[in-house]
Amino acid sequence: MDNEGGGADNYVTSVNCCTEGLFQVMKCFDITEGDEVILPTCHFVGTANAIADTGAKVVFCDVDDRSLNTTAKYIEEKITSRTKAVCILHYGGVPCELDEIVKLCEEKNLILIEDTATAVASLYKGQACGTFGQAGLWSFDAMKILVCGDGGMICLKDEKNFYKLKQNLYLGLLSQSGFSNSVDSKWWEFQIDTFGRRGIMNDISSAIGLVQLQKLPSFIEKRKHIAELYDSILSNVEWLKIPPKIEDYKTSSYYMYWIQTNAKEDRDTLATYLRKNDIYTTFRYYPLHWVDLYGQKSVKLNNAEEAAYRTLCLPIHQSLSDDEVEKICDLIIKYKE
């Protein structure tokens, strides 16, 4: 699953996990102490950790309270003279409004990194999410749609950065050693030019991924069916909201299906009620500015905070049957009866 061709102006390689890829990408772009990287607060903790690990400051921005995607408006509010990059997330597999975000980053000369972990098959105006910025990353761990056991993919625009990435992913080696080296007369010798890590994907995970890739269209179609079934049953429930309608120019991966309760107190009690009935629900993603270690608890991000009190992610996966979806919906409806 390693393709240096990757399409026009794209250089693509596999990685042992998306989180490692995020750490590597930050290094590729020389993000360091004194820099700032803007990140929507409803985001995966590994992304914030990858930024903080460089010594740079993570600057959290707000999101739309219904889609939980950030926008150019919320990003622009956080730009300073120290801002070097923006890292967005396509929440639940639904693309952000990329035209405005790309334009803003170009105008402000900012690096755009797309965390596409939940958007493996998502398109914006026919173009794959993850290919709009200078870097895009996908995840293939056990919780995702295309599963390799663990693994990920990185897409970069710049060839020099890609060369640096490839070395950092494999111990900083300048050339291969061993049987695969058909050039050097003493093939056991090697040199490195950086203290790289070992972040490559193994052959077993790659083989699993190639088979999963063939099944991906059917996986997405099944998840779309489940989302539409949830919509049809829950759309008339007065005390909650279903996800916003997806615009025609966007293609979702249907990674998550979320509802939002009108009353804050209903979200937690509904989650507890469903769990007592053997239905596991959760909330993704807990606002990172509320995490003590990042030191930004005093920051107010109103939309994200409102969403964090009202949002509940329901089960959605390609093995879920219609009967199971209907059972979940019946329990949700009975919660208020």
Can you lay out the helices and strands and say which pair or pack?
Elements: E1 11-15, H1 18-28, E2 36-40, H2 45-53, E3 57-61, H3 72-76, E4 83-89, H4 98-107, E5 111-115, E6 123-124, E7 127-128, E8 135-139, E9 152-156, H5 159-169, H6 203-234, E10 240-241, E11 250-251, E12 257-261, H7 264-276, H8 302-310, E13 311-314, H9 322-334
Parallel strand pairs: 2-3, 2-4, 4-5, 5-8
Antiparallel strand pairs: 1-9, 6-7, 6-11, 8-9, 10-12, 12-13
Helix pairs in contact: 1-2, 1-5, 6-9
Walk me through what this model shows.
This protein folds into two domains: 198 residues, Type I PLP-dependent aspartate aminotransferase-like (Major domain) (Aspartate Aminotransferase, domain 2); 118 residues, Aspartate Aminotransferase, domain 1 (Alpha-Beta Complex), CATH 3.90.1150.10. The protein is built from nine helices and 13 strands. The chain has a seven-stranded mixed sheet with strand order 1-9-8-5-4-2-3, sandwiched between helices. A three-stranded antiparallel sheet has the order 7-6-11, with no helix packed on it. Helix 1 packs across helix 5 and helix 6 crosses helix 9. The N and C termini lie far apart (51 Å).
